[in-house]
Amino acid sequence: MLKNYFYIAFRNLTKSKVFSLINIAGLALGLCCALLIALWVADEYAVDKFHSKKNRIYSVIAEINNGTNSLYWVNTPGLLAEVINSDVSGVEVAVKSSGEVNRLIINGSSTFNEYGMYVDSAFLSVFDFPLVLGNKEDVLIGLNSIVITETLATKIFGTTDVIGKMIKVRDRDDSEFIISGILKDIPANSSIQFDYLLPYQKFLIDHPHYKSWGNFNDYTYVLLAENASKKDVSAQFPDLILKYTESNEGNLHLIPTTDYYLKSDLSKGLAEGGRIVYVRIFIVIGFIILIIGCINFMNLSSARAGKRSKEVGVRKAVGASRKSLVLQFLGESIFIALISMVLAVSVADILIPAFNLLTGKELSIPFFNPMFIIAVLAVTLVTGILAGIYPAVYLSSFQSAKVLKGVERTGGSLTGFRRVLVIFQFVLSISFISTTIITNQQLSHVLNKDLGLNKDNIVYFPTRSASKSAEAFRNDLLNIPGIESVAYSNFNPINISNSTSSPQWSGKPEDDQNFFHVIQTDYAFLETFDIELLQGNNLPQTVDTTLVHFLINEEAARIMGLTDPVGQEISVWGDKGVISGLMRDFHHQSLFQGIEPVIVYQTDVAWRGYAALNTENQKEVIEGIEKVFKKYEQEYPFEYGFMDQEYERQYAGVDIVGKLTAIFSTIAILVSCLGLFGLASYMTEQRKRETGVRKVFGASIWQLTNLFSKQFLRLVLISFIISTPVAYYLTENWLQRFAYRIDSSIIPFAISGVVALLIAFITVSYHIVRAAKANPVDSLRYE
Questions:
Q1: Which of 79, 258, 668, 772, by CA, is between 20 and 30 Å from 606?
Q2: Average pLDDT over residues 70-95
């Protein structure tokens, strides 16, 4: 019997090649998209999941109450881990790490510019970064211990057998460290990346100001005890804060470290913001495209029911039960789904390199992974059943007596259920188009928004040893043709990560907990970044060693309650000074967030230089900067970047979403039109005689096209009416995540409707015009 079913399925495929091709192509496209999305989603969810204690590792999030609202930071004071270990029960161990640091590693006459972290000695006991050589319990105990990866060991020494060897690491000075352990290279699916680990206690010796509850710069991780609960541990934090800070403002929260990569956007609080939003979007997109492919199959299979009605009638007449017919037709749809899956996997394998290039991933299809094979077969089975269940039930419902007499309607007209399916397809497709347009409009708005400062044609580079001769270095750079101005700063003004609640001013309320972003820079800051000075004067060219000069933005003046801030005395980090000028507000962080108070703190020591260029010949200017840099710094390599490119990288995730949404919306409309193409083809075939009769009575090609296309275009128009509020709700919800967003407009929805109508009309018209041009004699000769 199974052999017979297989033979019939194969015969039907070859007998109706066009419809079989449309069915297979539609399902294959849907499955291919779903597979690529599934690989991307699986890779996103795999980040940090390799740690054996992952279910007990939590990141500590600091909640700061500034009097009006709460701010949430993943950065915490460096002292926190120590007091959690001593005062909080239910914690096996708490460890801290610095952020990523860039240090020069010196081995004899060779130097290497590498990135690493300072961590507590128990760091490797919490996280599974396996040691090839060394014992994780004691590799970071000594102040002069260093742990490096296999790649870095090979890079420096040419071998990994380097335990006990000495290298120097430059921070405040060139400190000697003994290599105490060799780590396996950090896997790509780790959100924590480094080439070496250094003892945090050494970091505190070189940077004693980190021993302060007011400095939120480090990361704190908690490993809960085996039977401890997150709730019980968290309940102890308010008392801990009160004990050590003498304040009951703010709190600490625990979130699973394995979740932080996907839920790292804390700008709206502890809600699940970040990459998880995009992951969920694409999970939905994958399902939608697959469903559209399944709808095509349902529509075409049920529309062509008349072609198989006699087969059903004969089978029922000779004793076939409805159950056996349903199983037969389901088997055929699963067979088609299997063919489509094979085609989908093959196409996905071809497209993977381009998909990786677009998403920045290194994905591959795990052909020999048993779980992958099981998942593919399960999806094939579910897809086959989902696509084939309606046609199977519909075909098996025919009554043999009526079918064989020719009185049962089995036709290919657009019946109620098929109309619903077509409408549903186009609701999804039109929503895709609207969403794509709005996503790209918002991205364009973000990338081209007036930030209140200039980010274009500004190159940045580390100053290194040149900072000791800052003015001489600046003058040499200004002599390079094409450089207009040079400023020094410790932070990029479009991404100021430094903040503090320490500023004091006359009349500051005792309970004020507002945080100010502080950027340490010099007198050329305003000129280099073209920031408007609204009141007062710029910073003086010479740093006053007895009185610090500050600039503040409009938001800082508002927070301080200063209507005329120039000349007012304030202090930052205990350093007293005077406000020299008031700057226009500028965007100094993601446009997902609003403008916050900024203080510019004048300094003569900064580790980054920024050069504003007035030429398009950037290559020659960069070569000139490198030449001057090497005059002052012979050990560190010259590195540089452009501010506009760094700004664009901040929105790389949104950009990828925009591009992928555009691609998948195109595929969705294509798959929908494939189904429409097949339905139109079958309908014109079924109404061939009617077309002939109408032509004999004088109907024109336009009249026939208008008559037959109306029923399809009416469905697309209904789809547009339904999709508009759906797409509006989804895009409006997404746009609310931005502090600065485009205004809602009917234009994107109107464009998507017009595009869908045009594509549908072109798709349908091809068959209708061809049928209308046919000689009516050919269709009526046997009547």
A1: 79
A2: 91
